[in-house]
Amino acid sequence: MLRVHSPGQMWRQTRAGALGRAMADLDATPGIAPPLSPATIFGRDDTLALLDAALVPGTVTALVGPPGVGKSTLAAALAARRGAVVWVDVAGATSAADLWGALASALGLSLNRLEEAHQRIAGVLAGRETGLVVLDAAEHLDPSAWAEVEALARGLPGTTWAVTTVVRPAGRVRVFEIAPLAEGDAVALLVARARERALDVTVEPTDPVWVALAERLSGLPLALELAAGRFGVLTAAQILERLDRPRVLAGGRHGSVEGALRYAWGLLADIDRDALVDCSVFRGGFDVEAAEGVLGDEALDRLTSLRERSALAWRDGRFH
Q: Is residue 87 within 8 Å of 32, Cβ to Cβ?
């Protein structure tokens, strides 16, 4: 979630969505190679270790967070550790039928009848001794599809399931929330990318310009990567001055930060959009009491809904 001046501004400025860098060469089951492999990941060692420990065979764990926070990158890093991997892009899937179709496509199966999908897919996964199944971009799956994922996982006690999603899942899926990078790690990422472009960069970790740039981008890896893409044309100070201009932060799955904002905004119901705008009067975060002052009796329901869709972060009793 972006550390901008208000939740309303969060959607108007630099909340990015997607994977930051092209990656390849994962160790995967032949013919089912996922499209990603981890590049240098800054500030995620502890998160990756905790996530790796949290994954329990026969269960489903959801990596939940806003677009651009690095869910898919972390899943790719997990896949690199796990051996036999099936990577399934479910970005367009909503129903159980859509889910079966995506899984069948990833496994190279042709399904003649929907009724046979569960049995055939489970049989293939078990036969290949799949260590990890990743369902990427699952925020549109409906409760029936989530129920099928859980049923598959229970029937395959040797297989671990990780799902990336902006929206918290239905059912009894375990949730692992992915937070933005800490300030020092965000600065380190920017400096590393500048040096990769053969720029002679000497920066102290507390350099005010680089710290301000990392803060404006809220530690979101995608936003940081998109900003770093301008090094060699702009200095850090010049990027910082231009963050509100169109196309400064462009690239990645959604094409630009603006595209990511539209995607994230589209996941909200109208009533939640209105609530987020109403809360934009606050600066530097707000608590429940403040939200009740502007949202009235609907405050708790709206805050819960916004949290479930990764539109608000909650730290130390305050929303950001």
A: yes
